[in-house]
Amino acid sequence: MRKQKYHLYLTHDERRTVINSLICLKNDLILQGRYTDGVDELIVKLTKAKVKKIKIKEV
């Protein structure tokens, strides 16, 4: 069975906030001596994700 894919559309500011939050979480995990593998994978996925421009129609 295939894993379900999710798409997340973020503005530039939201994307920067998410990446900064993940970096802070990673630093906290390092201070606690815990593994950071999951957070590392998310940071890499977010930084390598293609930027797609979409138009939003206001109703």
Structural write-up:
The longest helix has 21 residues, at 12-32. The chain has helices at 12-32, 37-48. The N and C termini lie far apart (38 Å). It has a domain at 12-48. 56% of the residues lie in helices and 0% in strands. Helix 1 runs antiparallel to helix 2. The protein has 59 residues and is mostly helical. It is built from 2 helices and no strands.
Task: Provide keyphrases for this structure.
single chain; 59 residues; mainly alpha; 2 helices; 56% helix
Strand percentage lies at under 5%
User: Which percent range fits the helix content?
Assistant: 55-70%
* Morphology call: extended
| Count of alpha and pi helical runs | 2
In short:
The protein has 59 residues and is mostly helical. It is 56% helix and 0% strand. It has a domain at 12-48.
Which helices and strands, and how do they pair?
Layout: H1 12-32, H2 37-48
Helix pairs in contact: 1-2
